[in-house]
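Sanity check. The docking grid for zinc ion depends on where the pocket ends up, so I'm generating a full predicted complex first rather than guessing from homology. Inputs follow.
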Amino acid sequence: MAPFHQHDCDNCFYLGSDEEGSEEKVKTDYYFCHRQGEHPCLATLIARYGEYGDYSSGIDFIMSSIGLNKSLKLAVEQNVLPDDVKLYIKKKQDDWFDYCKHDLSYAEGIAKRWEGRERFIIK
Ligand SMILES: [Zn+2]
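Predicted complex below; grid placement will be based on this.
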């Protein structure tokens, strides 16, 4: 498998590509970006939809962004997340579920956007 789009970060680990990274079926490349030994808050997942700035990134959006959640799934399946990063992400995940319990209109909006897609969760 090869990425659809050009990507210019040497630290990125390529996780795969498909056309399921957003509501619109666009060609999406998935990456995990992390320097060995750096703090987990600096690690990031990326879903690239096109050239230049056309991408999503950030651990904060792994539960709300369809593309970033797919990056997370691939990173866990391919076992590329260091333990501390995995724990950090799990915490973000738990915080997100907690947030959704309190901000119901946000939760409803996200559910609408996801349209029954299955969300990947670190167990
Ligand atoms: Zn990178």
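Relevant for the grid: Residues 59 and 93 are 9 Å apart (CA to CA).
Also worth noting: The chain has three helices and four strands.
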